[in-house]
């Protein structure tokens, strides 16, 4: 038997084997790899383009708008979208704030803050003149007031923390009424959300850099999904908490405009209302969590499945919109088998994309290819585009939609492929949510990276509370600024009333607008010059720990009979 006959027999055996596989398991596929941003370099792109086999390429057939049809069976969306477990309709903004900042959650913050203060003072020999020796245990009401001050700092921007308590002509009395400067700094210094003694040390292999703020992440995710059912269209993307602190969590994202350095979160939002549904922190490439699954399926595959599992969104007909970091044909098929659609841009070097979809098109031209539930689109909108834009969807079919765009201060109607219109409409959910967040977020530098993350999550919770308020209120609603201001004012009224009671002010005095004749004690060992017994001609100044209830001037109790307001 010569070599030619041997080659011919091998080819016949391979052909028979492939035909048998086609009959027994027509959906079988070759092992594949999903490439992440760091892996999909120019070198890997050229390598992948040459690895498509004949069998993989013939899976896709070219279709047109005229002959394409929807793939059946298709998962149906039957969920009722909107807020749930809400307060009474048309409630005040404070009621929505309390949905997320519950007594249980605030008690956790209080307990951990007091615990850390005790640990700090017992562990370190504090000098007698240190401000930390003045620490007094905080309360739930004080923690709530502390959060209100943080929210106000996001509205009223000042260059330094001390400038909020400045006594010059640009002073803001409200901050001094809520906290003394020293007390606010103490609460901020000892603020904690977890017991440090239960966390592994940095040199421990089990050390987790996210453990410092993980209780807040868990609480927020539980409340987000408890109070809202999303619309069908969901958006997945990355969000960055800007920081340059020294931690292994720091990521560099040059394409982010607001921040380039920071701690990255993977985030799932409602693409219609921009309500944040779930999120978790990215721990970096060195993290061993899900290492084998990431190596097998890719980071994008793991992130999307984890976010959707957190809210139990599988098998309900939801439609996920993502960018080319996540999108791949294996991921689309995996999600479709779990009753979930996927639409997004896709990189040309992903596996299983047929070569005829990569041919450069004419201006305004489009080309479709379908393989069961997966529809590919190559689209070149204008002449300045050097390459085709590749999109993939299991939600849309090959059709065009009329959309409205603004051009030269005028709105014009244009016709685009439905996949393009769907992607443009729903992709910006996370970016829009971030834009709304940054409007009233105090991003002051912090030595502790986890504190900046926690304060950012607080603002995200208030933003979600506002979205719930708008959907559960009839008629005209407050703007977001008015909503936050209303919440701050409600907390302020409650906190100042508690402070007056704590400083031995008679209850009758707090319930009327007419001050009673008498004196009240100043907080935090403050003193003022008595207006009666202090000589005004340059003589000695006698200070008092009390002030007049009516004019708020320094006054000793024994000097009341000689004082006139």
From TrEMBL:
Domain of life here? Eukaryota
Domain named PiggyBac transposable element-derived protein: residues: 93-466
Biased composition range(s): Acidic residues = 39-57
Q: What are the boundaries of the region Disordered?
A: 21-58
One family name in Pfam for this protein: DDE_Tnp_1_7
The species is Neodiprion lecontei
What this protein is called in its record is: PiggyBac transposable element-derived protein 4-like
């Amino acid at each position: 038997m010569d070599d030619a006959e041997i080659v011919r027999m091998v080819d016949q055996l391979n052909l028979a084997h492939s035909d048998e596989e086609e009959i027994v398991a027509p959906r079988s596929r070759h092992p594949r790899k999903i490439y992440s941003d760091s892996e999909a370099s120019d070198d890997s792109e050229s390598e992948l383009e040459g690895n498509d086999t004949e069998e993989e390429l013939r899976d896709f057939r070219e279709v047109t708008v005229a002959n394409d049809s929807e793939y059946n069976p298709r998962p149906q969306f039957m969920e009722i979208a909107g807020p749930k477990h809400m307060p009474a309709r048309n409630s005040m903004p404070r009621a929505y704030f309390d949905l997320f900042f519950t007594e249980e959650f605030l008690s956790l913050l209080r307990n951990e803050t007091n615990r850390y203060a005790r640990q700090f003072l017992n562990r370190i020999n504090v000098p007698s003149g240190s401000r930390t020796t003045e620490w007094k245990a905080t309360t739930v009401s004080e923690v709530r007031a502390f959060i209100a001050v943080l929210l106000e700092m996001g509205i009223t921007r000042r260059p330094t923390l001390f400038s909020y308590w400045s006594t010059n002509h640009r002073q803001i009395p409200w901050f001094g009424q809520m906290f003394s400067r020293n007390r606010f700094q103490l609460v901020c210094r000892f603020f904690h959300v977890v017991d440090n003694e239960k966390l592994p040390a940095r040199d421990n292999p089990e050390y987790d850099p996210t453990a410092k703020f993980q209780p807040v992440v868990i609480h927020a995710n539980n409340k987000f999904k408890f109070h809202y059912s999303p619309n069908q269209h969901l958006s997945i993307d990355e969000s960055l908490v800007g920081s340059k602190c020294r931690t292994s969590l720091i990521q560099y994202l040059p394409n982010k405009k607001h921040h380039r350095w920071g701690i990255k979160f993977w985030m799932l939002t409602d693409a219609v209302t921009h309500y944040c549904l779930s999120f978790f922190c990215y721990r970096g490439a060195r993290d061993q969590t899900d290492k084998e699954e990431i190596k097998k399926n890719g980071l994008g595959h793991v992130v999307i499945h984890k976010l959707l599992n957190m809210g139990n969104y599988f098998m309900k007909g939801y439609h996920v919109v993502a960018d080319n970091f996540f999108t791949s044909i294996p991921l689309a098929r995996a999600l479709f088998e779990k009753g979930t659609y996927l639409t997004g841009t896709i990189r040309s070097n992903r596996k299983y994309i047929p070569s005829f979809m990569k041919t450069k098109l004419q201006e305004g031209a489009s080309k479709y290819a379908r393989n069961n539930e997966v529809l590919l689109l190559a689209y070149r909108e204008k002449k300045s585009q050097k390459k085709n834009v590749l999109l993939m969807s299991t939600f849309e079919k090959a059709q065009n939609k009329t959309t409205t765009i603004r051009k030269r201060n005028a709105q014009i109607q244009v016709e685009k492929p439905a996949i393009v219109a769907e992607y443009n409409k729903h992709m910006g959910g996370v970016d829009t949510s971030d834009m709304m967040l940054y409007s009233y977020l105090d991003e002051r530098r912090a030595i502790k990276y986890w504190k900046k993350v926690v304060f950012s999550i607080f603002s995200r919770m208030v933003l979600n509370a506002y979205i719930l308020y708008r959907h559960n209120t009839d008629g005209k609603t407050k703007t977001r600024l008015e909503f936050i201001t209303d919440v701050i004012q409600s907390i302020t009224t409650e906190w100042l009333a508690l402070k007056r009671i704590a400083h031995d002010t008679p209850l009758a005095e707090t319930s009327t607008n007419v001050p009673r004749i008498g004196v009240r004690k100043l907080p935090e060992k403050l003193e003022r010059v008595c207006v009666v017994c202090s000589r005004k001609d340059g003589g000695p100044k006698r200070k008092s720990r009390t002030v007049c209830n009516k004019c708020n001037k320094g006054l000793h109790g024994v000097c009341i009979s000689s004082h006139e307001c």
